[in-house]
Amino acid sequence: MSQSQQPKILILGTLSGGYAGADSTGQSHLDYPPNTYILPVMSPVMFPPEFYLRAFEHGMDGIIVMYSGTDSPYKVEADGTAKLINRAYQLMKERGMDIRRLRLAAICTVCVKPFLKEVNQMNDLLEGIGFVKDEIAAHASAIVTQEAAHG
Amino acid sequence: MPENQQPRIGVYICHCGGNISGAVQCESVAKALKGLPNVTITRTDESMCSDAGQSLIEKDIQELGINRVVVGACAPMLHEQTFRGAVTRAGLNPFLYHHVGLREQDSWVHGHDKTAATDKALRLMSAGVAKARLLQPLDPIRLGAEKHALVIGGGVAGLRAALDIARQGLRVTLIEKSPFLGGRMAQLETVFPTEEEARALLHDLIQKVTAHPNVTIFMGAEVMGVSGYVGNFTIQVKQHSRGVSDDNAEALMSACTQEVPDPFNYGLTKRKVIYRPYEGCYSSTPAVDWDHYDGRPFDVNGWPIELKDEPKSFELNVGAVVVATGFDPYTPPQGEYGFGELPQVVTLPQLIRHLALSKDGKSLQWNGRAVRDVALIHCVGSRQVDGVHQPQEDGQVNNYCSRVCCTASLHMTADLHKRYPELNIYDLHQDIRTYGRGHEEYYRHALEDGVRFLRYNGEEVPEVSPAPQGDSHPVLVKVKDMLTYGEEIEIPVDLVVLAVGFMPRDLHGLDKMLKISRGNDRFLLEVHPKLRPVETAVKGVILAGSAQGPMNIQESLSAASAAAAKVASLLGRGKVELPPFVAAVDVEKCNGTGACVEACVYEGAIALQTFNENGEEVKRAVITPANCVGCGACVAVCPNNAVNVQGWTLAQYEAMVEAIGMDLPAMTEVTA
Amino acid sequence: MDDLHMDALVIGGGIAGMQSALDLGDQGFQVALVERDPSIGGRMITLSKVFPTLDCCSCITTPKMSAVAHHPNIHLYTYCEIQSVQEHGAGFDVSILQKPRYVDISKCTGCRECEYECPITVPSPFDRNLGAYRAIRVPFSTAVPQKAVLDPEYCLWCGKCEQKCPVEAIDFSQQPETFTIEADSIIMATGFDLTPVSTKKEYGAGKLHNVIDPLMMERFLAPTGPYGRVLRPGDGKEPGSIAYVQCAGSRDETLGITYCSRVCCMYAIKQAMLLNGALPMADITIYYMDIRTFGKGYEQFYQNAKAMGVNFVRGKVASIREDADQNPILKVEMTDTGEIVEQTFDLVVLSQGIVPASHPTVSLPLGSDGFISVPAPDSAPCVTGRPGIFVTGTAAGPMDIVDSIVSASAAAAEASAYIRENGSRLEVEKEALYA
Fold it and tell me: CB pairs below 8 Å between A and C: how many?
């Protein structure tokens, strides 16, 4: 089946954490859902909250930020990323989006099992809640309906 | 400059000798990508990293004017540098290259669904192309490098690494946590396969190290902090007082009455808290065991003398760090094979010390009795099985082989047989792994010497229990012996010897300070066992010896010399280059809000400076690249996206995400 | 050719020799790398995948080959034999024979037109003679250098290649040439051969149709292999059952090879795992005395193979014969039951061990095992009995790739210290090394 009909999961994996963890998973030849797209990042503390919103708009149905947490080589990564993600949650709520679509997880270079767990969990979630574009559309039409009712 | 022209992108997809092409239809992906804007050429190859594959890229750069290159292959960790090199040779800036991992993150994990794997490869490659369009040439940050290395650990690996670095004309500082050099090797008597005296070999090495003009040694010293990067590490060191001097040592030692179990003899004997571990140790000046000294004054000729540890702290500036922190022998938990419960159960390292302390006699004495029968059990703390063995504190079992214990055990049986020919020896093993040059001879001799070999299965380990009252022997060993077709055999013995394996050491935070990681086995992890077997993921931090995994002396020496070779390559020229992935400010966009400065936690990395712009004083952010680590905390907070990490810009990520989400016109055809 | 002066001369362009050369070159030393074959890469480049990571072998080897070829301080001499090594001060005069390629490598572009034109097919040693190539050819697809070589033993001198070559690189008049390199130090990285089984009558002395050596299996499994799949060499059928006979030529007093070859357990397990992927329906059995998976990550690799369903059977294979359909029949003494059983397989791999490769003309003391002697392994594991000459990799005894690579860097460290302490370079030049 073409992947265009599957929900898409964007993974932002740190070079010292999630991206290397995904490589470890590959070295172990362990299968996981293919609708996952991993981009290497130095540290996710560089992404402003709006970045995630735009990613959803581009059709990413779920995003997992796999950072290195407290093991990060960057001192600011653990706290800084959590703050940015929390602000992203606020923005998502305002737009009627299910905040479970965005997840922050600490994944180490050899965290094969946790990596698989995160990916499978997100995949299961998306099978349940569907495409983000439908959610955005539903919210937009709800606002239209509301405005119509008030208008 | 070709890089400033319109992007002309060359896209290359590697079959990886079937590793990628087994799951991804590489040709289809290449065909689909050909239609993308700015893509000038797409190619596939059996092995892009080969000389021929690299030449393809070089040729295209030169002949087709390709000015951005994207390769889809194995993990970037393995070959990104290789292709940056190829691009550079063809005259292009190395950072106009982008690497997409199609093997570890696609073909190896989605082999069951080739259509999906192909679709994923296409989207990832298309994202790579999107990033490539926005790549800019970058220059590495060039820094001076200290021609000075730090070696942590004064065992055989650390000593050898220090000597070999010194011999390459570089300065070395060696620090050792204990007050004496030599490490675990000093606790051995003879070494296999040459039967030379361990301490004689060691002292020859120590003599060479201490005599070398390039070497400085600090004993009783430990690392308290690490900052900086390759070429320019700053290391905080704390060195404890020795407590005594050559002048007062003998008087204080005779006055000292406090005794503690002697770790040199694995607790078999006691020693004073002012001590030398053994005669002929280095340094010969005794030291105070501060961890155990109770602080009470010593009575020297009627004068009470109280000793105090007055640690000195100092800083070292070094270009590279060699981690030679060694291993600990596995200590069985209370009750494993009767250890800690039955006095007749000892570990192999303990027996080595016991034999060294024993006077020659007709029979081996243990616990006040003559030993007639001894059982030696292999794989204690190694090759452990989940569910059979008690896990370590972190919940894991030691599922690795400790490599050294088989030969060490048979080296011991040879010694026992030589000294006590009447002794009956039972050897309980799973597999005999005497793999090394001259090791198999020990196995053969053991058979000739009459050592009785019994083989147990890993899931059914032998049982050690006290013999019933009145038995001729104090201990009973039960084993299901596969060499006699699974027969249950009971062996009454006087002594049980546990061939314990290697344990990774608790480094008390040193690994965290150096930002190096551990593998699944919890030993320190190399980048790649074949490509970079002694280097860590942190440039300039190099491994030597058994901190990396079980190794015998010969293997530790090789690893240490290899580490020295890497240090010499790194620091020999007195300068290093760092990747250019640091923040850069677009002054056109910056309006001096200072949010970036507030977000940055790195001293001196980013600051606001005042500029004169059209007669007006304005503030703009300025980066000091050597102090910036490229985390990007400044990027997220800039309201104008005026600051970006070079090579990893926000715009590049947005383009990649957009590309992943896009259904290419050719995609349906490819993945239908 | 002119006389040349080098800081170090490395004999053997396999993985160990390449790594030594790279480590010395990276430190700024001038290194000559001398290889007997027309391409560097050694044994490693012929392998399929490597344990315990299962990386594709060429992915690890070819970048090193490429780095050697492009290194400004490494001077590559392929298709060369060492003729003699004479002490010269603290260094050596090394006399080298350049064998004729009958191709001018300064002109050859590796386009392979000659190869396509050549009418003579000859068995390819790169493919363990399972496949064939032409009398003139680029040795293999990832060869370094990518230059053709002509095999005079098979060539009919028909001249078709000469006519076809677009750059006039074919030169039938080439003669062997001798030249001398002056080197301050030498590293022996001469590698290994498989233990010969021709004298092992119990195992068919190499005459049974479907009993193969492990390097043949590597070629079957390699993506660049001769058939692109695994088959029985006897009749081309796909094997449904495959057996490995461990310690075939190691730990065997009847052959005079009493040592353990260190790599056979791991390569057998690796091949079993790869076969499991290539032939999912096939039964794979490994007969062994002891499984010696001692390296980092190896024991876990072994346990994974067991979990995959590879049969590990403790037993001594007493003899092998074949039935009328050329199926090998193993007679096995089962350790766990004491029975003697006969079992028929479609294909048998003899897990042959490692013996020293035939040595070039460098006179060095050897150990009783025939490998280059290392008098003090527990203090100087790369130092031979002749000052200034160092040894690395399987030239110093059986070793796997990981251990060979570490040993190669160690040999480089020894050699560079020797060069610094004894070398004939002027002091100024030595300073310049690090300038």
Answer: 3
Beta-carbon contacts of B182 under 8 Å, excluding residues fewer than 6 positions away, are B154, B155, B156, B199, B202, B206, B281, B282
Do the strands C121-123 and B215-219 form a parallel or antiparallel pair, or are they unpaired? unpaired
What pLDDT does C428 receive?
A: 40
Question: Is domain C4-97+177-191+357-433 annotated with CATH 3.20.20.70?
Answer: no
Question: What is the mean pLDDT of the segment spanning A117-143?
Answer: 92
Q: CA angle, B575 as apex, B570 and B577 as ends, to 5°?
A: 80
Joined together, the tokens standing for residue C252 give 């065997």
* Chain A positions in Cβ-Cβ contact with residue B579 (cut-off 8 Å): none
Sorting pLDDT into bands at 50, 70 and 90, what band is C435?
Answer: very low
C43, C50, C62: best to mutate for the B interface, most B CBs within 10 A:
C62
State how far the Cα of B554 lies from the Cα of B560, in Å rounded to an integer: 10
Separation in Å, CA of C414 to nearest CA in chain B: 8
> C429: pLDDT confidence band, cut at 50, 70 and 90?
low
How far apart (Å, rounded) are the C-alpha atoms in residues A142 and A136? Answer: 10
Cβ of C56 within 8 Å of Cβ of B194? The answer is: no
* DSSP per-residue letters across C232-269: -TTT-PPPSEEEEEEEETSSBGGGTB-S--SSHHHHHH
Taking the C-alpha atoms of residue C200 and residue B478, their distance in angstroms, rounded to an integer, is: 40
Judge if B472 and B426 occupy the same domain: yes
Domains: count for chain B:
5
**In chain B, which stretches have pLDDT less than 70?**
1-4, 665-672
Domain range enclosing B382:
331-502
**CB of C397 less than 8 A from some CB of B:** yes
Contact between C294 and C277 under an 8 Å Cβ cutoff? The reply is no
φ, ψ (nearest 5 deg) of residue C315: -175, 155
> What is the model's pLDDT at position A151?
54
Distance in Å, alpha carbon of B110 to nearest chain A alpha carbon = 6
Q: Is B635 exposed, middle or buried (0-12, 13-18, 19+ CB in 10 A)?
A: buried
**Residue B73 in tokens:** 């292959």
CATH of the domain at A33: 3.40.50
What residues in A contact B637, CB-CB < 8 Å?
48
Question: Looking at chain C, which residue has its C-alpha nearest residue B103?
Answer: C55
Burial grade of B502 (CB within 10 A; 0-12, 13-18, 19 or more): buried
What is the distance between the terminal CA atoms of chain A, rounded to a whole angstrom?
Answer: 45
Q: How confident is the model at residue C346 (pLDDT cuts 50, 70, 90)?
A: very high
pTM (two decimals): 0.83
CB B458 within 8 A of CB B388: yes
Chain C partners within 8 Å of A27 (Cβ): 53-54
Q: Are residues B396 and B477 in the same domain?
A: yes
C113 vs B: CB within 8 A = no
Q: Where are the alpha helices (DSSP H) in C258-385?
A: 264-278, 298-308
Q: Is B515 on the interface with A (CB under 8 A)?
A: yes
Residue with tokens 């809000």: B593
Judging contacts by C-beta atoms under 8 Å, the chain B residues touching residue C108 are: none
**Nearest partner of B530 among C275, C44, A113, A115, judged by Cα:** C44
Cis peptide before B391 (omega within 30 of 0): no
Fold of C100-175: Alpha-Beta Plaits (3.30.70)
Cα B620-B626-B629 angle, rounded to 5 deg: 85
Residue pointed to by tokens 């070494």:
B191
A125 close to B (CB below 8 A): no
Give the B:C interface size as CB pairs under 8 Å: 236
| Predicted pLDDT of residue B52 | 85
Q: How big, in percent rounded to 5, are the helix, strand and coil portions of chain C?
A: 25, 30, 45
Scan residues 478-497 of B and list those with Cβ closer than 8 Å to C.
Answer: 482-483, 485-486
